[in-house]
Amino acid sequence: MKKHKDYDCNLGCMVENTLEIIRGKWKGIVLTLLFDKCYRFNELQRQMPGVTQRILTKQLRELEQAGLVVREVLSLKPFAVCYSLTDLGRTLKPVMHCLKQWSLDHGHEVYALETVQD
What we know:
Elements: H1 11-22, H2 27-34, E1 39-40, H3 41-47, H4 53-65, E2 69-76, E3 79-85, H5 87-90, H6 93-117
Antiparallel strand pairs: 1-3, 2-3
């Protein structure tokens, strides 16, 4: 997943690296949900109609590998796992808030331009 191993690059490289880490159709939703509380896998999946078990598992694993999400086994019988944000993951909250606000403020403009060009 790590696109840039050497961080000694131009200014845009750092932004691209961050976007590479949070890129994925469902990662933004997962992160946003986990800002509020710990979720079990099925609870997360119910919050995201349309996501498959395979894709959600893949996205959670990638977030876990990036050090943003932690997977905690709560019990063995019945087997239960809870996903929550790490301290590093919680540092993304203001970033995600800014992305959401930008989308609210300007998303319609981008959509209108894309629609005209199609």
